[in-house]
Amino acid sequence: MKRNILTVGRQFGSGGRTIAKTVAERLGIPYYDKEIVEKVALETGFSEEYIEQIGEHARGKSVWSYAFSNPGVPGVMGGMSASDFLWVIQRKVILDLAEKGPCVIVGRCADQILKDREDVLRVFIHASDEFRAERIVRLYGESESKPEKRLADKDAKRRAHYKHYTGEEWGNSLNYHLCLDSGVIGIEKCAEYIVSVMKDE
Amino acid sequence: MKRNILTVGRQFGSGGRTIAKTVAERLGIPYYDKEIVEKVALETGFSEEYIEQIGEHARGKSVWSYAFSNPGVPGVMGGMSASDFLWVIQRKVILDLAEKGPCVIVGRCADQILKDREDVLRVFIHASDEFRAERIVRLYGESESKPEKRLADKDAKRRAHYKHYTGEEWGNSLNYHLCLDSGVIGIEKCAEYIVSVMKDE
Question: Which CATH number, 3.30.1020.10, 3.40.50.1820, 3.30.300.30, 3.40.50.300, labels domain A1-30+102-201?
Answer without folding.
Answer: 3.40.50.300
